[in-house]
Amino acid sequence: MRTRRGICYPRDDACIDESVAKRRDFDRCNMGCRKRQRFSPVSDMFDVLPDDLVISILSKLSSSASCPSDFINVLIVCKRLHSFALQPLVLSKASPKLFAVKAEKWSESAHRFLKSCADAGNVEACYTLGMIRFYCLQNRGSGASFMAKAAISSHAPALYSLAVIQFNGSGGSKNDKDLRAGVALCARAAFLGHVDALRELGHCLQDGYGVRQNITEGRRFLVQANARELVAGLSSASVSNIGTRSWLTWTPHPIPHPNNRHPTVPGCPLLSDFGCNVPAPVAHPANQFLTEWFGSRDGFPGPGLRLCSHVGCGRPETRKHEFRRCSVCGAVNYCSRACQALDWKLRHKAECSPVERWLDEEDVGGEGMEEAIAES
């Protein structure tokens, strides 16, 4: 691989001799000039670096960047880094945190950069751009195609999002619902280990929604979703050195929640089937963007439209009465059964009007209603 000067990995002495010779020629030819150009041996050595080595370093940087500024600061160093940083090989390995732009800072340049990452084959960029175009920019066809591109590459969140679109008929009319397609997409995402897809598939099997009813199999998927949720919580706690002893007891004190609209939540985060208070899962950057985007619009995506009441979702309705309401209180609405089950454990169980009656039924030995599934 040749460098910009047409040489390949020169020796140190060759680099020094060449730079000295150039300096002498420069002094002879510009003796009478009033302004002299500065000699920079550092930039000279950088120009000697092979192109493939620079691209490899930038690819590693893009895959490990923790925020957009880590990568943008490299683009403004020089023209060579700017041109190499926008190579498809570098953009295809960009991490989700690299293009996790805040909704308030969304611009046409951010849109172009995300589009460049998606065109380079970055699966996360395809999913994020698809969600933004479908729900925020209301470009349904383009957004769905980008999500489908990510789903073809076995991207579990994209498969689940397409399943939610099929279940609700989002972007179309009520007659556009395709329950079987939604179950098939959900099953594929569940096979890849997506927790929400496992929970959604479990409720579909329990209720016979889009698939033949199988209560035992549905319950198995729900337990598996709780197990994966518990494992994810334990792994995140081990990385952040957070003690897990408090997970085994109920606490009456408020706990922090990652969503800004609900900074604190009373009681435990999520009570799993194993008796552990599992912390609420961190929302995907695409869902965080949706929450911020519509939160800046006071939570109203349009006339007569509503947002999903689960704080970590952010999906809006694309037509009136698209989402299901809680069949008991009617005060909340959800885009999916998985979001309703999560929000029930996290928040709504303490707010729904007949919660006292359910607690009484649990005390006398009834099964209780750990997850209230709303009807259309």
From TrEMBL:
Keywords: Metal-binding, Zinc, Zinc-finger. The keyword Phosphoprotein does not apply. InterPro entries: At2g35280_TPR_dom, At5g50450/At1g67340-like, F-box-like_dom_sf, TPR-like_helical_dom_sf, Znf_MYND. GO terms for molecular function: zinc ion binding. The keyword Zinc-finger applies. Residues 310-352 form the MYND-type domain. Pfam families: TPR_27, zf-MYND. This is F-box protein. It comes from Hibiscus syriacus.
